[in-house]
């Protein structure tokens, strides 16, 4: 694979094949005792060809002694050191980067990754990735998937990601999020939002007008609200209603996106397009 950082907000990813998958792990909170880190390793092992993105809030980073948001039970024993942050960086480099270096596209940031910078003026994520020169994106941006087609031409499949959905909540406002994101990012063929630990995948058809040829074209945009790897609901429960996340259970899993070139008949001609089909890989006890 080849990664080209076009600018702060755009990363171009060129895989070595034209049929491949990307597993997007969002809200991993991966050093937390409540995260399904072992299961994630199993998923990566079961899909050895898949590329990897660690979406926002990949680390939890809030169990420091003076962090008011911390919960003691969320820190695994071996990270409970006086240099807690060093322990997290060392451990996570071993777990998340070393075994997957050759198929890791990037890390992106969420509020857990940025709040540590706001509170302590240090970018832990930079520290985590710089030794291995891994790409680090901010909380929103584009990943341009460049697939080699015939005759040396490339077809681009733009993924837009944004950690916070514009409006939270699957039941009441989820579709409003989809509408807003699609209107704001008309060039994306897939839009991923994270953060609320709720999940949906919905296809939408977009009509584009080519003013030069006075013609219309249509394409499918996949809108994905990603699941989490943190089982926030596990452990001691004081009441069925959880103060922090306002619900009793979250959906645990990751998104797997399968890419391939497809021949389609549209606009009165045969076209080859870069297509992507999203799936869930869900965690079951
Ligand atoms: Zn978040």
Protein architecture, described:
- By secondary structure, the chain is an alpha/beta fold.
- It has a single domain (2-282), classed as Metallo-dependent phosphatases (Purple Acid Phosphatase, chain A, domain 2), CATH 3.60.21.10.
- The protein is 18% helix and 34% strand.
- The protein contains 5 helices and 12 strands.
- Strands 1-2-6-7-8-10-9 form a 7-stranded mixed sheet. Strands 5-4-3-11-12 form a 5-stranded mixed sheet, covered by helices on one side.
- Strand 9 (200-210) and strand 10 (215-225) form a beta hairpin.
- Helix 2 packs across helix 4.
- The longest helix has 14 residues, at 84-97.
- The radius of gyration is 20 Å and the shape is globular.
- The two termini are 34 Å apart.
- The relative contact order is 0.17.
- The model has no long low-confidence stretch (mean pLDDT 88).
- It binds zinc ion.
- Zinc ion binds at residues 56-57, 110-111, 163, 195.
- Zinc ion is lined by residues 56-57, 110-111, 163, 195.
The largest beta-sheet arranges its strands as 1-2-6-7-8-10-9
Shape descriptor reads: globular
Strand count, sense and closure of the main sheet? 7 strands, mixed
Low-confidence stretches: none
Give the strand tally.
12
Rg over CA atoms, rounded to whole Å, is 20 Å
Order of helices and strands: EEEHEHEHHEEHEEEEE
């Amino acid at each position: 694979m080849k990664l080209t950082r076009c600018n702060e907000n755009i990363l171009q990813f060129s895989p070595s094949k034209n049929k491949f998958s990307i597993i997007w792990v969002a809200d991993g909170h991966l050093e937390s005792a409540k995260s399904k880190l072992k299961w994630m390793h199993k998923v990566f092992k079961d899909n050895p060809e898949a590329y990897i993105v660690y979406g926002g809030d990949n680390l939890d980073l809030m169990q420091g002694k003076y962090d008011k948001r911390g919960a003691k039970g969320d820190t695994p024993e071996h990270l409970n050191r006086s240099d807690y942050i060093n322990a997290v960086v060392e451990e996570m480099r071993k777990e998340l980067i070393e075994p997957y270096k050759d198929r890791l596209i990037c890390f992106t940031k969420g509020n857990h990754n940025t709040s540590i910078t706001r509170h302590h003026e240090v970018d832990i994520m930079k520290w985590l990735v710089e030794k291995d020169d891994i790409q680090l994106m901010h909380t929103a941006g584009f990943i341009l998937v460049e697939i080699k087609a015939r005759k040396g031409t490339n077809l681009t499949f733009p993924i837009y990601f944004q950690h916070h959905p514009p409006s939270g909540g699957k039941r009441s406002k989820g579709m409003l999020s989809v509408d807003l994101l699609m209107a704001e990012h008309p060039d994306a063929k897939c839009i991923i939002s994270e953060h609320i630990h709720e999940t949906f995948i919905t296809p939408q058809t977009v009509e584009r007008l080519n003013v030069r040829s006075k013609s219309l074209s249509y394409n499918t945009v996949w809108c994905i609200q990603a699941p989490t790897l943190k089982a926030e609901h596990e452990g001691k429960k004081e009441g069925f209603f959880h103060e922090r996340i306002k619900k009793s259970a979250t959906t645990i899993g990751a998104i797997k996106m399968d890419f391939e070139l497809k021949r389609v008949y549209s606009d009165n001609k045969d076209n080859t397009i870069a297509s992507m089909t999203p799936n869930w890989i869900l965690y079951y006890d």
